[in-house]
Write a structure and sequence with these properties.
Number of helices: 5
Shape: flat
Helix content: 55-70%
Strand order of the largest sheet: 1-2
Order of helices and strands: HEHHHEH
Distance between the termini: 30 Å
Number of strands: 2
Structural class: mainly alpha
CATH class of one domain: Mainly Alpha
């Protein structure tokens, strides 16, 4: 009988990010990159609260431009991952700032 593989949490998260990227990429032709419209669709759907709370309507275009390191007008997975990593760091920073010394306000995670 074959052993059923169950990914660890650390393995599951990257797989999940790849699946999210692939869900939005390719509708405009290149399934390895997010076009501007695909990026906006991702932001307005997957990060809707963030996108809706922006006062400047050009913020998504500015983000796309800053993330697009090779200036090809599209985001590859590495550029997309830079966004996700930046969001994770910003969230961690906000947890640290909100933490009274000696206690943790970070969301509970798995026991290590």
């Amino acid at each position: 009988m074959a052993k059923i593989y169950s990914p660890t949490e650390s393995e599951w998260y990257p797989e999940s990010l790849i699946a999210v990227f692939q869900r939005y990429a390719g509708k405009d032709g290149n399934d390895c990159k997010l076009s501007r419209l695909e990026f906006q669709s991702f932001m307005n759907t997957a990060l809707a609260a963030f996108a809706k709370n922006q006062k400047d309507p050009s913020v998504l275009d500015c983000m796309m431009k800053k993330l697009n390191l090779n200036s090809d007008g599209q985001l590859d997975f590495q550029e997309f991952f830079n966004l996700i990593g930046g969001l994770a760091v910003a969230c961690d920073d906000s947890f640290i700032k909100a933490t009274p010394s000696g206690t943790s306000l970070r969301p509970p995670g798995p026991a290590l």
